[in-house]
């Protein structure tokens, strides 16, 4: 990798994730030997990466510039903006700056990773500025599906660069103030060199609806239900959760929270007054079991159909205290993250089979996007009037549509609307913006909370060479849900099969127990069965042998 000598005089903007590909938002800004990182998010592996729990950006670039990095700057607390921060802090321990609520969400992760003793988290208020040698950063409040979100204005020696974070222009947010267009306009008046703007909804005409736009549909659901109302949404969707709590109060229903992240995020939001929780509204899942159906709301994590989530457990009769049943109204109040559609479809089918009604956003307006559409983007561009516009946060197609559409506004010169992708080094100053180099930016796959390797192929090779592979092959009868008798376990590089008959027999028994312990609905859900077998074997093998072989269950349906 090479940099021009004049790099010291120009600003470098280097997206490390989230630009040209969905999720994992992360960006570096460098000037004169100083660098800041804006956001460090994680991606979602979907179903094409078996055995991978989360995906984070590859930090080898960071390694190279570790001495230059002075801070991690956070725009807001969504997973795809903060999820990789604990992993990053283990590589480079630099101060992290963000709003109180963003840092509170991060704090939970920092503790999970056991790095609370050295992580240095600094909370900032909107309009607060933090100065480094060459960079001065100001947080400016924006609206989004989460609260306490910000754009950041970075003043550099070559001009001001504004990073929009994720935003929409919501004039009537449920919680907190609207976007601070006044401050953004002040920056615009003073002159903005470049705007890096959220492209997620750049293809959508008009304005994105306010978070309040879901209220009529929710009101209707509460008015017309005489059974339990089960709402599953993202556990960080504070506005949505507030709306559910308000209607629960109005319609005299109690609320039980299900799923670890739901409980934790609601507690965090409540403790920082991001939620206005009605008195005595919450009850425990155990109390919920005793409660008449028409007096109950369940607020459940797992709207993306993750096999191990509370929502899927309830829909497959595997939750320890509560299951979906006849008379329930299941409200999936979220968008489908790309890649998750098959799992969500299965979740919906499970609910219908158990006699519940399901309402998703195809049937009622129970979800609005947190990202600005074209007219929101226009308001931002008009406020800031930047010399350069750089679309970020989106697939290449969305970046391109953002550019095409912004060209029609006549505010930014078409040549000054620059599309970059992850790894591009964009050199920028008053005279121009050009891509001067390309870094190789890979992805890092995380299995559980450890096991970071730079590339899936390398990961697989290392994994296989250290601990081998186990392939349990089972056949499940789709009608009866029973395991067919000819269960097989193939191993390579793990044990000598002839010498380890006892261990193999134990492994077989675990597979049999896992499948027979599952509900009928779980048994006939290929993804759930696979994941349950994988986790059960992983736990046992780790405990019994201390090793972590790759486990690839094969489930045939007969
Ligand atoms: Zn977001």
Q: How does the major sheet shape up?
A: 8 strands, mixed
In DSSP terms (H or I, runs of 4 or more residues), the helix count works out at: 17
CA radius of gyration is 25 Å
Helix vs. strand class: alpha/beta
> Kindly, what is the distance between the CA atoms of the first and last residues, rounded to a whole number of angstroms?
53 Å
Mean pLDDT: 90
Strand order of the largest sheet: 8-7-6-4-3-1-22-23
Strand content: 15-25%
The best one-word shape is globular
Helical content class: 25-40%
Low-confidence stretches: 1-7, 449-454
Give the oligomeric state of the chains in this entry, treating copies of one chain as homo and distinct chains as hetero.
single chain
Report the count of strand segments: 29
Identify the bound ligands.
Answer: zinc ion
